[in-house]
Amino acid sequence: MDGIYRVPRNKGPRIAVIGGGHGLSTMLRGLKRYTENISAIVTVADDGGGSGMLRQDLGMPPPGDIRNCLTALANTEPLMRQLMDYRFTDGSLAGQSFGNLFLAALNGVSSSFDDAVRRMSEVLAITGRVLPVTTADVRLEAEFENGATVVGESKIFHCKKEEDCRIKRVRLLPEYPKALPEAVSAIAEADMIVLGPGSLYTSIIPNLLVDGIVEAIQASHALKVYVCNIMTQEGETEGYTVSDHIAALFHHSAQGLFDLCLANSSPISKSVAARYAEEGAEPLLADEKLCKKLGVEVISRPVATVENGYVRHHPDHLARELILLHAERSVRIAGDYKADAYRVEKKP
Description:
Blueprint: E1 4-5, E2 15-19, H1 21-31, E3 38-42, H2 49-58, H3 64-73, H4 78-85, H5 98-108, H6 113-123, E4 129-132, E5 139-144, E6 149-151, H7 156-163, E7 167-173, H8 181-189, E8 192-195, H9 200-208, H10 213-219, E9 223-227, H11 242-252, E10 260-264, H12 270-277, H13 288-293, E11 297-301, E12 304-307, E13 310-313, H14 315-330, E14 332-333, E15 336-337, E16 343-344
Helix pairs in contact: 1-3, 1-14, 5-6, 8-10, 9-11
């Protein structure tokens, strides 16, 4: 790998990643190539789609985001990964994924949801671990700048389109549920804490509203990095810049929660940008001066790719840049690098 020499994965940095959605699972697929010491701390506020159906029918936390992370970290035969992602197309199970049902079944025979996640981790022989941020039954409420409110993560998109104004804040109901102790411990033990990538208000911020998470991040001396989205998101962050994202994160947690932001520098083609523009989305502007006023350094790197016409983080490129950041910012001593850590090629 150009510019980086890997240590054995079992001696790789301890990384706590916090978020949800496809952005988090994408990053995990890349990170597991560098380290086995990954703790993915995942939101449980989803109430839509197949996860929402299982949540309503069985009274369990939503499995979808957790299942995506488990699959991303899995070290099993391709057939098992295909099964985890398989969605039924007919009958009463139409739209439901086998992975969600598998986790639901494990939840039924386990003492708790986090125990079910642990058991599924063993079945899939995952690298690292996946932890629900809380096991409390929580709902997400959004308040808009015009005073309107809506309860339910799946309803925020449509409500924002109807109200045609920015989200002022989100909160969990009930407020400040207790964090899973293992999630707090993972943050405390981490060498690097990564927020995102993912939907700002529905994947990342809900984790910061769980009691104990922000306090654990603040107390940590680890390298703290926010991985910003590549594009603005329709129904959530239209018109936002990078500094808007950072300001929203600080507003819902604490000023100075992190001081590094990794943004994309890869160009987005005109044709792809035009398609996004039809939906009111655009490449996210890295307004570095305003970010600096918030106390955050923006580091722009080429981490984007296009898949089937959609802009995504490239799992390998994103992971590599994070590992390089850790090497450059965490293990350098007097201009040199520790002999037993990552060695980064020095630029002349």
